[in-house]
Amino acid sequence: MALLEVEDLSVTFARRGQRAVHAVDGVSFSVDAGEVVGLVGESGCGKSVTSLAIMGLLPKQPGLRVGGKAVFDGTDLLQLDDRSRRDIRGRDIAMIFQDPLSSLNPVIPIGLQVTEVLARHRGMKGETAAKEAAALLDRVGIPDPKRRLKEYPHQLSGGMRQRALIAMAVACQPRLLIADEPTTALDVTIQAQILELLKELVRDSGTALLMITHDLGVVAGMVDTVNVLYGGRVVETARRRPLFRQPRHPYTVGLLGSVPRLDAGRGEKLNPIPGSVRDLLPWPDGCAFAPRCARRIDECVGEPPELVHAHDGRSYRCVNPEPLPGMVPAPREEESA
Ligand SMILES: Nc1ncnc2c1ncn2[C@@H]1O[C@H](COP(=O)(O)OP(=O)(O)OP(=O)(O)O)[C@@H](O)[C@H]1O
Ligand SMILES: [Mg+2]
């Protein structure tokens, strides 16, 4: 059984007098112990809302509706009361956010914030906690940890703060770490170091990682299984290699085509996907990606495409997927008539 099994998760924000936003619309995916799973897609496709729903951290606003299941080790997180959820959060599941400054308390020294986690989740106190906190900072590559522990978040650089947050996340030895764009706010060299660090942690401790990103470079470097999200639904799931080698969903093809490549010839243009995520068809009326899709056919509109489970273990939600090399596309009715 998977460590985390998200089943038909949906999140709707309804406001009086406004159209309801189906931010997450029947998302299913799973994460096995020790596995790195990616949630990928353009801005606004529902990545953060998915992770916040799993963690029970969505803003409690009127009109919020959450449906489906998020089963962690046999327990549906969505059915837990706030207290039990807080216990799991931190002890079994930790989360790293995009903006480290907003996740650290500005008026408490870093050291105290780390030792607090150690006290709450591992029962460590005093000298033992202080020693472990320094060891953790050292492990995430913060130089001179003893001195850093006394400093406040604003005294650390962006990269150091993100490292401190990772230290806090691993302090409780979680079984699942959810990282929502952990490196987008950082410059490229620090980005690479942080990703390396996360990879190392996963390898050494067997922690499962749910990596949320819009950056396919990040996916290529570390993810085992990729879930591509569009308009609040998973449109393709595959292992990393087959996904990069032979994407089947036209949206995945578009995402890959919009990534700069070093081996591209001079003057060769990037192929951004035409239109924007805002040009989507509501899923009940057909494929949300149809308005931007180069492979659109009549069948794409009318009803939502079913999820197809291909024999190679991947699945995609598309009625006219990218053919595999060597595959002869079936003749369309009007062509054969
Ligand atoms: N509290 C909220 N109230 C109403 N709508 C919301 C709320 N939070 C998110 N949304 C909407 O839900 C959709 C999905 O947002 P989400 O933050 O999950 O996108 P994302 O994939 O994480 O994008 P990004 O890559 O920009 O972080 C968006 O259309 C967003 O406007
Ligand atoms: Mg987000």
UniProtKB/TrEMBL annotation:
SMART domains, sorted: AAA
Entries under Pfam families matching the protein: ABC_tran, oligo_HPY
Molecular function as annotated in GO: ATP binding; ATP hydrolysis activity
GO-annotated cellular components: plasma membrane
Protein's UniProt name: Oligopeptide transport ATP-binding protein OppF
Bilayer topology term: Peripheral membrane protein
Occurrences of domain ABC transporter (ranges): 4-256
Gene Ontology process terms (BP): peptide transport
